[in-house]
Amino acid sequence: MAGTLLRKTRKEIFGQKGKVISSLTLVFIGVFCFVAFSAMFPVMRVSLDATYETYASPDFMAVAYAVPREHISGIKDIEGVEGVTSRYHIFGEASFTGHDENPADIYGIDPNTPPEVFKLILSEGTYLDPMNNHTILVERSFASSNGLALGSELILKVFGSEFEVEVVGIVNSIEHLLPHRNPKQLIHAPSRATFSSIAPIWIDISVLQDFLYAGSGEKDVVNEILVRFENGYNQTVIFNHILSEIEPYPIVTTLETNDLRSAELQRFEIADEAVVLFSGLIFVVAVFVVYTTVSRIIQSNSRSIGISKSLGYSDAAIQRAYLLWLGVLALITTLIAIPLGEPGGQVFISSILTMYSMEAQTAALSPIIYIVALIVGPCSVLVATYFPTRRITGYEPIRAIRGWMMEKGYVGEPILEKIGEKAGISGYGFKYIVRSMSLNKMRAALLIIGISLGGAVAFMGTTLVTGYNTSIATYMYQYEQWDLLVDFKQPLNTTQVENLLAPIEGIDIYEPYLKLGTTAVVDEEERLVSVLCLNSDGSLHRFNLESGRTIQNTGEILVDITIAEMLGISANDAVNLTLGNSSIVSTVVGIVSSPLNVFYMEFAEAMSYLHQEMISGAFVRITTGSDPDAVADEVFALTDVENSMTKLQASSGTLSETQGTAISVGMAAMAMILLLAVVWNIVSISTSERTPELAQLEALGWSRNMLTRLLLVEVLIVSCFGIILSIPLGQLFTGFLNEFMKTYIPFYEPSIDFAMVLVIGLLTIFTAIIAVIPAARKLRRIDIDRVIRERLMS
Amino acid sequence: MTSSTSLVQIEDIKKDYTLGETIVHALRGISFEIMEGEFLAILGQSGSGKTTLLNMLSALDVPTSGRVVVAGTDISNMSRDERTHFRRTSVGLVFQFYNLFPTLTALENVEIGIALDIKDKQELRRRASHYLELVGILDKATNYPSQMSGGEQQRVAIARGLAKQSPILILDEPTGNLDAETSDAIWALLKELNTKTGATIIAVTHQISVSRVADRSIFLRSGKVYGVSESNEEG
Questions:
Q1: Pair (A43, A62) in one structural domain
Q2: What's residue A297's pLDDT?
Q3: Within chain A, which residues score under 70 in pLDDT?
Q4: With contacts defined as CB-CB under 8 Å, which chain B residues touch A701?
Q5: How far apart are CA A757 and CA A107, in angstroms?
Q6: CATH number for position B167
Q7: Residues A577 and A499 grouped into a single domain
Q8: Domain total of chain A
Q9: What whole-number distance in Å separates Cα of residue A560 and Cα of residue B67?
């Protein structure tokens, strides 16, 4: 008896083969994505580690103002040091065919000896020619995406001077993939280099120094020292030895292994959560679609189920048969998706790594992932099947035998109909649609949820792009009141700065700052940190306090929230800082969200701990009516000035228009595919269910265009609800995304571009209408006579 | 009520269906006329072609060959949209399984059939109520189909067909789903309506007893007219 019931149930399920397959396809995609993404990250981690080894990634990096190369020659002899590279790194511009003044990271290196740390692996051509100092090396992916090849000629612009160079080598390098940048140049413009298409270029160091020290100063100097350690040595001890070698030359900042490598890995942890969220979203959609499909199967077989009950089959037995079959199908789907997901993810990540000159390594996938996939895949289908099959209890055998309707077929006048009537919409098309929706509330709800999910994901994408681009600008507008940022080549004293800047007519006021790389003892552990000393109660800055208060007394400091979290510092903690020869105990009175990972100290207090005045740069406000660009150019032309950046440049968006559009379009496309799948499935099912009614309307004289309009009206109604719901849902998703974005920009705030929201709303409606096309086409092919005769309506 | 004016002319219509590789000749050349105001019964056993014939008359389908002319218009070569328009303006249809909309009340089920042509709400309601009253179930106007018996539902369906005030009312097995007593009541009602409204009624059925109320009965067998009988009110 049970075997017969199972056979009958199987036929009922496979009677809706197309819909069952489309529903299970979504389960397949959910499992596949979950396994594939989960397989990607271990590979990426292992591959990154291997890449760090291949390219000899540094364990320590010091950014100095300028240190004679001879002075630091002893670093390579420190016990535990495996290799040292020193270089001069500046931010310039490169012009070449089709590109005018493209931002460029220009590294001045020894043309005779390739770097030991951050190795350059030649892809094409040769290393720099020591006999021709106008030869350069260019990073491979930048070269290929910008049409640069061996022999290409570029014009480089550094410190206002231009000169021609020729590409002699194309190299693989991982530097541009890593989070670090020259922090001296990126004060208050930290993310400019994060995603921008910046040209990584290597050139003979002597070329840069000729421009840097035109006519004066020591020429053989470097501003970046990169050191790689041997395994097994105490890193803190080596740090201190290196810092001693660099003394007395001041350091702008230091980066250690954690900054140089782990920051990316930490982001993977958040990405892991995003993977679960994304896969979960697909499962949610799959559950909806399975629910509607099973509802349809149950409803269309209601009479057959009623007759089965009259023959003595229990509700539980019938329900079990459905659960069993669909559970088995879901298990088979999951078992197919899992073995495909793992290689799928690995192939995908391999292609990405190859794009970035990295070699994919193998990494085992945790068995927990398989177990979770095996549980979630079938369980999502079982849950989605359980609820519609509960309706079986309401199918009375007596009704089935007599050929009566098996379910409640009417509703009262729904609220939407009353609203419509008040708004003057009272046609029978509208009445029919809203009552159908009210009769099958779950189906309408699923449509609304599907549309709102699609809208929400697209909404999240646009807030991401606009938020990314406006966060820095908003921060700068709210908290920074300077017009110009000036970096000096070497720290100067007050008199020198005054002599330098006073002649410039366009300058109204300026405030000096000093940035120093030093050490701090936190919880009895010595850490490398950077301190930015500025006039905290001046007129050119305000702090974006997360907790605590601003500096009011000596001995008080503020700390950026990223550093605070990394070092485990909270407000009112004491930190032992080394400044010059002084060891001072400061109290953290506030945690701030800022563009820099630094401690903030009062400038005057910092000077009191140093042997001499040291000013590494100045924040400048220009006089009213002056042109910031003109003043910036005038300041940049000064001999002692290394860089001069306007506030507009510092605030510029971090995503190019193309990149922003790509992210927006990508997210929107993903969202619309989800939406399309849901609406397509549900509208197709609901149209099938209502085919007899629609055929009857046509028999009564309603044209096919009028019937198509009915479907459109229904989708428009649910789209409106869906779009409204997508706003809070989008905000919820955006909240999840914020956590991730804050690792890049601590003060990241999602920003709503209402024009984009409007576009998303229209796109959602458009996609929903597109999704109705298959159902509408099917509707136009209805054989009225057959449908009316064979399908009972009441 | 039958006039001497011919309303429908059926001229040698044939209809073939393809079932797999087999061609089924559902209608094999049928010709007859229907007079204005006539109550015509089309009788025959299952598979005789009576429903196929009705589909041609109601413009739900088109013949393979031959012509169907209704009030001077050839409906056998119309496009699907033209046929839809024809049904909207020229015929009222009643089906065996009532085909009422479960989400609409009896009154609304009647209204939806005429709402395309009557925009005035009050007129719409007045006419729908009138026909519900005519078929004797105005008291069930606010009931949903699932709250009514089969006979009541069929009355609503007839009211919907009549409310159009089309010159022709076509019924397909209108009592096929009803018990004998209700069935007799429906036929009596149809006869009464035919007399009162002067509508031309064409009913397809396999119930021979209908020939007692119809003005004329046409018997089909294997897609051909097998016989015709004139009505005998007394008989």
A1: no
A2: 86
A3: 1-3, 176-197, 213-218, 258-273, 356-357, 397-412, 469, 651-660, 743-744, 785-794
A4: 84-85, 87-89, 116
A5: 43
A6: 3.40.50.300
A7: yes
A8: 3
A9: 89
- The confidence score (pLDDT) of residue A400 equals 59
Contact (CB<8Å) B103/A699: no
Please state, in angstroms and as integers, the Cα–Cα distance from residue A581 to each residue in A62, A490, A585, A586, following that order: 19, 20, 13, 15
Q: Which of A244, A264, A284 is where one domain is finished? A: A264
Rounded to whole angstroms, the Cα distance separating A456 from A443 reads 19
DSSP state of A262: I
User: How far apart are the C-alpha atoms of A298 and A323, rounded to whole Å?
Assistant: 12
Contacting residues for A60 by C-beta, under 8 A, at least 6 apart: A226, A227, A229, A235, A238, A239, A242, A254, A255, A256, A257, A528
Taking an 8 Å cut-off on Cβ atoms, the answer to whether B81 and A703 are in contact is yes
Cβ-count burial A125-149 (b if 16+ within 10 Å, e if not): bebbeeeebebbbbbbbbbeebebe
Closest CA to A239 of A257, A260, A265, A222: A257
Give the number of other CB atoms < 10 A from CB of residue A477. 12
Are residues A201 and A75 located together in one domain of the fold? yes
d(CA A463, CA A741): 11
CB B112 within 8 A of CB B101: yes
A609: which 2 tokens?
A: 């701990």
- Which residues of chain A are within 8 Å of residue B104 when distances are taken between CB atoms? 410, 431-432, 435
Quick one: A86 and A222 in the same domain? yes
Per-residue model confidence (pLDDT) at position B46 = 81
**Residue A436 counted as domain residue:** no
Single-letter code of the amino acid located at A284:
V
Report pLDDT digits (tens) over A26-62: 899 889 988 988 888 888 888 888 888 888 888 888 8
State the pLDDT confidence band at B48, using cuts at 50, 70 and 90. confident
Q: Does A704 touch chain B (CB under 8 A)?
A: yes
Q: How far apart are CA A231 and CA A219, in angstroms?
A: 35
DSSP structure string for A150-190: TT-EEEEEETTEEEEEEEEEEEE-SGGGSS---TTTTTT-T
Rounded distance, CA A50 to CA A73, Å?
Answer: 29
Q: What is the pLDDT at residue A772?
A: 87
Domain carrying residue A238:
52-264
Neighbouring C-alpha atoms within 13 Å toward the C-beta of A730: 28
Q: What's residue A181's pLDDT?
A: 47
Tens-place pLDDT, residues B94-144: 877 667 887 788 998 898 888 888 888 889 899 999 989 888 889 999 998
By C-alpha distance, the chain A residue nearest B92 is A700
User: Tokens at residue A125, please?
Assistant: 């051509």
Coil, strand or helix at A514: strand
pLDDT on residue B234:
42
pLDDT at A1: 47
Tell me if B1 is assigned to some domain: no
Do A237 and A288 reside in the same domain of the chain?
no
CA A291 to chain centre: 32
CA distance B227 to chain A (A): 26
Q: How far, in Å, CA of A490 to CA of A250, rounded?
A: 9
> Model confidence over A537-566: pLDDT tens digits?
888 888 989 899 999 999 999 999 888 888
Number of domains in chain B: 1
A253, part of any domain: yes
Q: Let me know if residue B235 belongs to a domain.
A: no
Yes or no: say if A189 and A236 are a contact pair by the CB < 8 Å rule.
no
Mean pLDDT, chain A, as a whole number? Answer: 82
- Assess whether A101 and A34 both reside in one domain: no
Residue B157 resides in a domain = yes
Interhelix angle A657-689/A691-699, nearest 10 degrees: 70
* DSSP assignment of A312-366: T--HHHHHHHHHHHHHHHHHHHHHHHHHHHHHHHHHHHHHHHHHTT-PPPP-PPP
Structural domain of residue B89, as residue ranges?
6-230
Question: Which one of A438, A699, A793 has the shortest CB-CB distance to B97?
Answer: A793
